[in-house]
Specification:
Elements lengths: L13 E2 L15 H10 L7 E2 H7 L9 H6 L8 H13 L3 H13 L8 H4 L3 E2 L2 E2 L3 E5 L2 E4 L33 H9 L6 E4 L9 H8 L12 E6 L1 H4 L10 H13 L3 E7 L9 H12 L3 E8 L7 H13 L3 E7 L6 H4 L3 H13 L9 E6 L3 E11 L2 E11 L8 E5 L22 H10 L25
Parallel strand pairs: 6-7, 7-8, 8-9, 9-10, 10-11, 11-12
Antiparallel strand pairs: 1-2, 3-4, 5-6, 12-13, 13-14, 14-15
Helix pairs in contact: 1-4, 4-5, 8-10, 12-14
This protein binds pyridoxal-5'-phosphate.
Length: 468
């Protein structure tokens, strides 16, 4: 390892579908492989950048390279007949409007918003809905800043793809931070605000500051942590190191810490290679120097990271770099997922094998976990109960907090990939949470949490402390 490595600043350059011919590395692919990218990227969002292309993808490995699969669209992400129809148009050099029309038709046939997000999670202030806010779990509010709804590069499996391809009516967008503050002031049960997107760190620091700073003001002492979900440390680590407002961003993180709130970057790392560039490691070090904690999570994706060795290497490296492994997610049931999905039984095996290969320091990680309609459900594993093969499942998060930590059983199914494909085991007619879930769905809301806030101790906090 070199004792010292010098990183040159890099100007961000995004490549989209129209720029495919200007990515020199793509000349390494066969004409058929290149055509597939042109066809599929008309339907599914595609965006990479110069860092991903030049430093993350190993082009000598061709279309099998996991970072290539992670960022470049693949032929089999479309149904064969859809691909064929669209490929015909592309080959014929059909007008772009005709290509776009067919692409839109194919998009609408895919399943954009899973897990009941559209129906159940939009909170209100004075009866007015807050479109950029989701409040699914009592303690944590999810906030989608309207200016943070894109990313430095797109993951091919992303379940949020409708918000990138202009299906505006499906987009969660927020108007302003003020409505968020008003909501939080009325909801003392909330302790954590999680900014998500897209990627909130796509915003300039000056814009992000306008969202975060109001949360540091008096009256919001019950908000004890602020989190930002981001893939910037993996896809554009220059954001924290050499970008013009990188220092400013780090000052913003420090300001959250000075307001005596925990600050965490919920960093999306899919593969250990994303942690193995000098600029990524410099970014982590700078983030950590502000007192921010980096917690790492990613979905399990076939062809990208569906091997125990990859996860074990990644978790070990995350710990070595001072970050905290947090979640392994199961890829959810959106559009192109059949291409990427890993059965739950296999996911649990991969998780266990990887978990067994690391020390306790990396076992802060949980999973494999499905973010499903009733909550985050972890597949503990397979077992046999009185001759019946079952899955043991447990809620890591639930729409009803009393569900959390309660184990339950499903019939073992080697092919099932999502909670809604599982059936109760041991002769039960339905899972324990289903009746209450139905009641929530017909009421269109949760139990009102504000009325039963669990008692919370007011902690003693010291601001500036001096010593001799
Ligand atoms: C995962 C998640 C959270 C955060 O849950 P934690 O257990 O606090 O990390 C909040 N809201 C939604 C909708 C989530 O999916």
């Amino acid at each position: 390892m070199p004792a010292s490595t010098r990183i040159a600043a890099l100007d961000f350059r995004a490549y989209q579908r129209k720029d495919l011919d200007s990515i020199p590395e793509l000349r390494r692919l066969s004409p058929g492989e290149l055509e597939a990218i042109k066809v599929v990227s008309a339907v599914l969002p595609f965006r990479v950048n110069n860092y991903v292309v030049e430093q993350l993808i190993r082009w000598e490995r061709g279309v099998e390279d996991p970072l290539f699969v992670l960022t470049f669209p693949q032929r089999d992400m479309l149904a064969p007949e859809d691909f064929g129809r669209l490929a015909d148009l592309v080959r014929k050099g059909a007008p772009e409007a005709q290509i776009q029309a067919l692409a839109r038709e194919i998009q609408l046939g895919m399943n954009p918003h899973p897990a009941g997000q559209m129906e159940l999670n939009v909170p209100t202030v004075d009866g007015e809905p807050l479109p950029g806010v989701q409040h699914k779990y009592r303690e944590t509010v999810l906030f989608f800043p309207s200016q943070g709804q894109t990313c430095h590069a797109y993951c091919t499996y992303c379940f949020r793809w409708p918000q990138f391809v202009g299906l505006d009516e499906l987009k969660f967008a927020s108007r302003e931070a003020e409505t968020l503050v008003a909501y939080l002031k009325a909801h003392k049960e909330v302790s954590s605000v999680l900014f998500t997107g897209g990627d909130p760190l796509i915003m300039k620091t000056s814009v992000l500051r306008r969202y975060i700073e109001p949360l540091l003001s008096p009256g919001l002492e019950h908000i004890t942590s602020i989190r930002v979900g981001t893939k910037a440390p993996a896809y554009w680590p220059y954001r924290f190191v050499t970008d013009a407002d990188a220092d400013d961003l780090l000052r913003l993180f420090e300001d959250v810490r000075s307001a005596r709130k925990a600050f965490a970057l919920m960093a999306h790392f899919s593969h250990p290679r994303e942690l193995e560039t000098p600029v990524a490691q410099a970014a982590l070090r700078r983030i950590q120097s502000t007192g921010a904690v980096v917690r790492c999570q990613a979905p399990l994706i076939r062809r990208v990271n569906d091997k125990a060795q990859i996860w074990a290497d990644m978790w070990r490296l995350q710990v070595q770099l001072g970050t905290v492994p947090y979640y392994m997610f199961v890829e959810r049931d959106t559009g192109p997922k059949n291409y990427f999905e890993v059965p739950l039984a296999r996911a649990a095996e991969i998780f266990h094998e990887a978990y067994s290969m690391v020390s306790g320091l990396a076992r802060t990680v949980r999973g494999p976990s499905m973010s499903a309609t009733p909550g985050k459900v972890k597949v503990v594993g397979a077992a046999e109960v009185r001759g019946e093969k079952v899955f043991i499942l447990v809620f890591e998060q639930g729409r009803d907090p009393s569900w959390v930590g309660r184990p339950f059983f499903a019939q073992y199914d080697a092919e099932a990939t999502w909670l809604d494909q599982l059936r109760p085991a041991c002769g039960e007619r339905e899972f324990f949470f289903e009746a209450e879930m139905r009641a929530m769905q017909s009421a269109g809301r949760h139990r009102p949490w504000g009325e039963d806030v669990p008692p919370r101790r007011t902690p003693v906090l010291f601001g500036h402390v001096e010593w001799d």
